[in-house]
Structure formats: structure tokens, C-alpha cells
Design goal:
The chain is an all-alpha fold. The chain has one domain (59-465). 59% of the residues lie in helices and 1% in strands. Strands 1-2 form a two-stranded antiparallel sheet. A hairpin with a 7-residue loop joins strand 1 (481-482) and strand 2 (490-491). Helix 7 crosses helix 9 (154-183), helix 12 runs antiparallel to helix 13 (228-239) and helix 20 (352-364) packs antiparallel against helix 21 (375-385).
């Protein structure tokens, strides 16, 4: 079943986005009203092609570290090409094909990531060994675990392992772009904000976060197709890769309460719990103590990179892990309550990406660690919540600043860091990053309270393109008013 909005033409960014309009002047100006679509280069294909280019540029950005064979040292920080991937090949036993969470003897450090990342990393290791001719592991098992990298052939395998991981992760990046292009049927071009993102270029190979990003994008796509169970399954799989996809359920709850769709929310919860249990159960059975290291590690760690807590600690204040835990959960709980109130009291039902963005921002700004690749957590949500080039480029400009600042901090390239003093330049980068995210969240809150500012709803014709069709109204809705910004179209219907 289709709605009237689905029969409308696709939204053209060069007509509604000032930045896209201005940029188009260099190639002939905005697309004409009567322009015929290209028979091959559909919006989705263009977006996937751009995603491929950006991902390849991200691989090229790692070239200095690849040329140095990932041997460590300050080159990886000076060139801002660091990645966790090659170091975990030997650091977590993949060079010996050690199954994640199964090393009860303590030869290697336990995999400190959730199970989907463990499975993916192990699968990439098997591909690496297959491409290397299934090397003999005898020499590796004869030396201590921290010396395996020095065994002949292992260094080359580590380099190959990074390449294999990059190729496999790129598939998830393309999948995320495809999902985003299909989430809003009339707005496939919004996904270009993901495909051409500077944050995607710089951060996608730092860690395995693209697995969770693809799951979140897929969950939003499935919900927009009226498939709450599948949406929940993808949320569960994403949560088994990184914790943050779980927060998507909070946004779904608010919308389902507002729209009286609690059965759909129940299906989503059922799918999420079932999928999470299914993938977590094997390591829970064969290595429970190793499996729970992710949870204990994050509970016990102190203030770390990128966090406001690190600034507070380096300023000379006492910061304990338990104190951070308590303060962070109180803050995050307050944010969740505020988002619930905002969602229930707003003049129109907020869109799911808007609420999810606010929840994830609330989680990140007080988190113990704020790694540079965490920008990817917000990227698909920001693309759908605020599809405007200006706003996303301002936010990502702060993220790019932080991306380079953190490597300079770790490499101790600033004068204050080299002298052993607190690195105030790094503090500024952290504060600018957090301020930019809070600003973006503030813009989204404004869009919720004044829906005529929302780019998705500003035409006065679109309600929530992620919601399945609703029955036509048979009587006027109290409170309907005309939006002067939408050419006299009726808009801003409380729902």
C-alpha cells in the first residue's frame, strides 16, 4: 500500500539545500524541473559509487602505516593512519587461529570486544591464513605470545590481515549506504551525506565500528518498510557488535507510545533480544569468563581518550571509575527521561532518527572514552535526522579537528605534551568536538519543537517517511495549522 507522499517526485537536494544549490553552480546549476532521470545512474548507484571512492580514499590514507608494516612508533600518529586491526592479529591470537573467548590459559589478552566483532575478526583471520597457504603454527606456539609477531612470515600476514579486513568492512559500508538510501523513499539523496562524509573517510578503518553502523542503518530501513521484527533483529546484532544500537529501542518506544503501536515495539524487542542471545550464547557456554570481559573491562576502566573526564582528571581532580560510572548513568538516565518527555509533548511525533541521535549524543558526551571512530555511531542518525550539508559539515569539521588532535596527543607532538604537562591543545579539541555535537543536538531539538524547520517535513506534505502508511483521517484534526514556509500547505499536525 502506498501513500500520497510516495507518489510525489524525489526530493532534489539542489532545490532545497542551499549548500548543494551553490555547489551545483560549478557543474551547470540545479537540476531542471523537467530533467529526465539517467537510465543507469540512479540515485542509489551514484551513492554507492561515491561510497566506494570515499572508502578507497580511506584505505589510501592508511598508506604510511602500511608502508611501515604496522611496526608501531610515532609514524602511525604523525600520519594519523593508526588502526587497531593489524595489532590485534597477534595481540589476540589470530595469528595462531585462536578462537575468540576460548583462551582459558591466558596466552593472549582476552578479546575485549563484543562477540560479533570477535566473529568477524576471527573470520578475517581464517581468510588471511587461507590466502597465506595455511602456514604451519608450530614455530608460533613455541614462543611466548607477545613474541609471535617476530616469527618469520607473521608481520606480512598482519599486513595482509588488515587488507582482508578492509575489503570485508567496505562491504558493510556499502550496505549501510544502501540502507540509508532506501529508508526515506522520496529522499534517497540524503544518503550522499553519509557516502561523501569526511568522517567516514578518516574513521572507517580505525576499528570495526562499521559493523554496528550497518546494523543501525538496516534497522532504520526495516522499520521504514513496516518490518519491526527484522528491525529488532538488526538492533540485536548491532548491539552484539557495539553497545550503542541498543539505544535505538528507546527511540522506537517513544514513537510507538505516541502512535499507539506498542505491538510493533514488542516485536522489535523480541527480535533484538532473540538475535543478541543467539550470537552471544556460544561463547557464553564455552568461555563465559572470557565473554564477560567486555562488560567488566568497560565497568572498571577509568577516564580515557576523548572524554571530558580525562580533562577533569588531568586538571588535577580525583576521578575514580566508580564515580564516573555513577555520574555517567545519572546523566544518561536524565537524558533518556528528557527525550521521552520531548517525544511525548512535541507538537508532532518526532522522527525516530531525531530521538535516536539525541540519546546517543547524551551517552557519548559523558562516556569514559570517546574514541575517534565513534563519530561513525552518529553519522547515519545525523544524516536522517538533519539532512543538511551545512549542519553536518560544521559538526564533522569539529570531528576532523579532533581526529588529528588525538594522534598528535598520543605522539606527544605538541610542546606541552612533550614537556610532560597537560596538553591544552588536546583539551580544546575535545571541548570543540563535544560543543559541536551538542549544537547539532540542539538543532534537532528545535526541529522537533518547530517541525517547519525540519528539512524532511518542511514541504508540508510529508509526515514521517519512516512510518508505515496510516489509515486516512475521516475528520479534521484539532490543532492543524498552515505552515507559511511550505507554500500554504497544511502541516504540523499533532500526532
Amino acid at each position: 500500500m502506498s501513500t500520497d507522499s510516495e507518489k510525489l517526485p524525489l526530493v532534489r537536494p539542489t532545490h532545497e539545500d542551499p549548500v548543494a544549490t551553490a555547489a551545483s553552480e560549478g557543474i551547470g546549476g540545479p537540476v531542471g524541473e523537467h530533467a529526465a532521470p539517467h537510465p543507469f545512474w540512479t540515485p542509489v548507484r551514484v551513492i554507492l559509487a561515491v561510497t566506494c571512492v570515499v572508502l578507497m580514499l580511506g584505505m589510501l590514507q592508511k598508506t604510511p602505516c602500511v608502508q611501515a608494516h604496522w611496526t608501531g612508533g610515532n609514524e602511525r600518529y604523525a600520519a594519523a593512519c593508526y588502526s587497531d586491526v593489524p595489532y590485534l592479529y597477534t595481540g589476540r591470537g589470530f595469528a595462531e587461529r585462536s578462537v575468540p573467548y576460548s583462551d582459558t590459559g591466558g596466552r593472549y589478552q582476552v578479546m575485549e570486544y563484543p562477540v560479533v566483532i570477535g566473529y568477524f575478526a576471527y573470520g578475517a583471520a581464517l581468510v588471511t591464513h587461507a590466502l597465506s597457504g595455511w602456514p604451519d603454527l608450530t614455530a608460533r606456539s613455541a614462543v611466548p605470545g607477545d613474541q609471535v609477531f617476530s616469527v618469520p612470515g607473521v608481520a606480512a600476514e598482519s599486513w595482509l590481515y588488515f587488507q582482508v579486513t578492509a575489503v570485508l568492512l567496505a562491504g558493510f559500508g556499502l550496505l549501510a549506504a544502501w540502507f540509508l538510501a532506501g529508508t526515506h523513499r522520496r529522499r534517497p539523496w540524503d544518503a550522499m551525506l553519509f557516502a561523501a562524509s569526511p568522517a567516514l573517510l578518516l574513521a572507517w578503518l580505525v576499528n570495526w565500528d562499521l559493523l554496528a553502523v550497518a546494523a543501525v542503518a538496516g534497522a532504520l530501513w526495516a522499520w521504514s518498510r513496516g518490518r519491526p521484527l527484522l528491525s529488532g533483529v538488526l538492533i540485536g546484532l548491532g548491539t552484539a557488535a557495539k553497545l550503542y544500537p541498543l539505544f535505538l529501542l528507546g527511540a522506537l518506544l517513544v514513537v510507538c507510545l505516541r502512535r499507539r503501536r506498542l505491538p510493533a515495539f514488542g516485536w522489535a524487542v523480541l527480535g533484538a533480544v532473540g538475535a543478541w542471545l543467539l550470537v552471544n550464547l556460544p561463547p557464553m557456554l564455552y568461555g563465559f569468563e572470557q565473554w564477560k570481559v567486555f562488560w567488566s573491562f568497560n565497568g572498571e576502566r577509568g577516564a580515557d581518550l576523548g572524554s571530558l573526564w580525562l580533562i577533569w582528571q588531568q586538571a588535577g581532580h580525583t576521578v575514580t571509575s566508580s564515580g564516573i560510572n555513577l555520574a555517567s548513568w545519572i546523566w544518561f538516565g536524565a537524558v533518556c527521561v528528557a527525550v521521552l518527555a520531548l517525544g511525548l509533548l512535541a507538537p508532532r511525533t518526532p522522527r525516530i532518527p531525531q530521538l535516536a541521535l539525541l540519546i546517543v549524543v547524551g551517552f557519548l558526551v559523558v562516556n569514559k572514552v570517546y574514541s575517534p571512530q565513534y563519530v561513525l555511531w552518529l553519522l547515519p542518525l545525523a544524516v536522517l535526522a538533519r539532512p543538511r550539508w551545512r549542519d553536518l559539515l560544521i559538526w564533522q569539521g569539529a570531528e576532523v579537528l579532533y581526529f588529528f588532535a588525538v594522534w598528535f596527543y598520543l605522539g606527544q607532538f605538541t610542546a606541552s605534551a612533550a614537556s610532560g604537562q597537560p596538553d591544552h591543545a588536546y583539551w580544546i579539541a575535545i571541548l570543540v568536538r563535544v560543543a559541536a555535537e551538542l549544537w547539532l543536538a540542539g538543532v534537532v531539538v528545535r526541529d522537533i519543537l518547530a517541525p517547519w524547520h525540519d528539512p524532511v517535513r518542511a514541504d508540508g506534505l510529508t509526515d514521517d517517511p519512516m512510518e508505515p502508511p496510516r489509515a486516512a483521517r475521516t475528520r479534521p484534526v484539532p490543532g492543524r495549522r498552515v505552515n507559511r514556509h511550505a507554500g500554504g500547505q497544511q502541516a504540523d499536525v499533532p500526532s
